[in-house]
């Protein structure tokens, strides 16, 4: 199963489906379980969680490349070869990110920056979401040692249980107990996956706490890639999540926030589907690239782009046909969405499909500096779309914002199209 790109793609798509169900279930459940004002604060918490989860700055991508080369025996005799102590250092780093994010959240709750009467609920949700950081390390490490299928199977089981616990809130389970149990399930699954990596690599307990040796190796062999990777990751995080905060600053009306949250969920759905397909094809794409086989590379990229567009068109058709009903169901009828809003979301999604293929492929090729340059116009457009819409079209602020954001994505997609064209002509 591990050797079959088709089977692996199907398993990854199944897991993506469960992740998407969980994401929509979070909104479906909490928009009903919380008052509207609490739910607006909850959306800010979700956005902050997204920032925190993305703050690993591409380290797990770097360790995947290094560990994969080590596993395949391609780094023998290399002075910069992968060291087992690196795993402990990176695990520590991710733990510190979670701890730092939790401290910031506690300060924000204490200071009233995130207004809520249920701080424990917010903290538990944040912690359960942040477990995706060590989960990402487990996923990438298992993938590097030919454990893709194992991780996807474990994660599918985890998602099924957490979705069931989440939906149980609607039939009377205390939300705090639900989140605490989800936290426990995630800890058990991720811990088991890390233990499996430990066993496959022949690690010893001392490797996880040799921070001086591992830290020295990370400092010597990661810093070259991590600068551009970190800058690109930060740019990407802000570009995709900033409107949550700029909308909150611009207006107290819930509708613009709900519109953006709806678009964000659609874009996340599409990007995850595209990522699953691209990840299944990456072994062949990277092999063709490093072998200089331009014809094969062009063929594989064409297939990836075609598949991404099929997903984007299918999602667009769904939105144009039933987007208004989906919006009403998702947000419990607390706002409505217009046809014009849906058309702008569709335009943005078509542009996003191309952008996602470019980012996932070029990140796998280590072209972080190139991606950083391409991300800056998107970042600028994302930050400016809300204040410009508020300034120029205050009466139709929500529609103007979506229009400017869609235009930003179109321009970013055009830059990435040129980038991919050059990639296959190098």
Please name the defining characteristics of this protein.
single chain; 426 residues; mainly alpha; 84% helix; Membrane protein involved in the export of O-antigen and teichoic acid; transmembrane helix
Task: Give a short synopsis of this structure.
The chain has 426 residues and is mainly alpha-helical. The protein is 84% helix and 0% strand. It contains 15 helices and no strands.
Structure description:
The protein is built from 15 helices and no strands. Helix 1 packs antiparallel against helix 11 (254-291), helix 4 (85-111) packs parallel to helix 10 (211-250) and helix 10 packs antiparallel against helix 11. 43% of the residues are buried. It folds into 2 domains: 1-224, no CATH class; 251-426, no CATH class. By secondary structure, it is mainly α. The model has no long low-confidence stretch (mean pLDDT 86). This is Membrane protein involved in the export of O-antigen and teichoic acid. The chain crosses the membrane at residues 7-30, 42-67, 88-114, 120-137, 149-173, 179-197, 300-322, 342-363, 375-393, 399-420. Keywords: Membrane, Transmembrane, Transmembrane helix.
């Amino acid at each position: 199963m591990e050797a079959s790109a088709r089977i692996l793609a199907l398993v990854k798509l199944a897991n993506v489906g469960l992740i998407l169900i969980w994401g929509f279930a979070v909104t479906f459940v909490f928009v009903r379980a919380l008052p509207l004002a609490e739910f607006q604060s909850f959306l800010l918490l979700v956005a902050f969680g997204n920032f925190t989860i993305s703050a690993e700055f591409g380290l797990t991508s770097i360790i995947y490349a290094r560990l994969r080369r080590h596993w395949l025996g391609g780094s023998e005799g290399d002075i910069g070869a992968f060291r087992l102590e690196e795993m402990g250092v990176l695990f520590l780093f991710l733990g510190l990110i979670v701890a730092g994010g939790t401290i910031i959240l506690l300060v924000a709750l204490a200071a009233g920056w995130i207004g809520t009467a249920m701080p424990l609920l917010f903290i538990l949700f944040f912690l359960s979401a942040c477990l995706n950081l060590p989960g990402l390390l487990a996923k990438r490490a298992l993938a590097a040692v030919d454990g893709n299928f194992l991780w996807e199977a474990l994660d599918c089981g985890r998602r099924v249980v957490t979705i069931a616990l989440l939906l149980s809130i609607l039939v009377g389970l205390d939300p705090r107990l639900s989140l605490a149990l989800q936290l426990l399930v995630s800890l058990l699954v991720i811990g088991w996956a890390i233990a499996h990596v430990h066993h496959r690599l022949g690690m010893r307990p001392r490797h996880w706490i040799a921070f001086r040796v591992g830290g020295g190796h990370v400092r010597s062999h990661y810093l070259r890639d991590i600068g551009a990777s970190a800058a690109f990751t930060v740019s990407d995080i802000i570009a995709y999540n900033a409107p949550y905060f700029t909308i909150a600053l611009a207006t107290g009306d819930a509708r613009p926030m709900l519109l953006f949250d709806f678009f964000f969920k659609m874009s996340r759905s599409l990007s995850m589907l595209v990522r699953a397909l691209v990840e299944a094809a990456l072994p062949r794409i990277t092999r063709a690239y490093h072998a200089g086989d331009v014809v094969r590379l062009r063929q594989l990229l064409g297939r990836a782009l075609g598949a991404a567009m099929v997903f984007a068109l299918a999602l667009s058709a769904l939105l144009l046909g039933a987007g208004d009903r989906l919006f009403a169901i998702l947000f419990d009828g607390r706002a409505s969405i217009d046809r014009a809003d849906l058309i702008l979301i569709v335009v943005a999604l078509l542009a996003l499909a191309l952008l996602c293929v470019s980012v996932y492929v070029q990140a796998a090729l280590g072209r972080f500096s190139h991606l950083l340059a391409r991300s800056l116009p998107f970042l600028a457009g994302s930050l400016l779309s809300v204040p410009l819409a508020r300034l120029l079209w205050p009466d139709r602020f929500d529609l103007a914002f979506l229009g400017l954001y869609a235009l930003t994505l179109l321009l970013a997609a055009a830059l990435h199209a040129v980038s991919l064209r050059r990639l296959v002509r190098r």
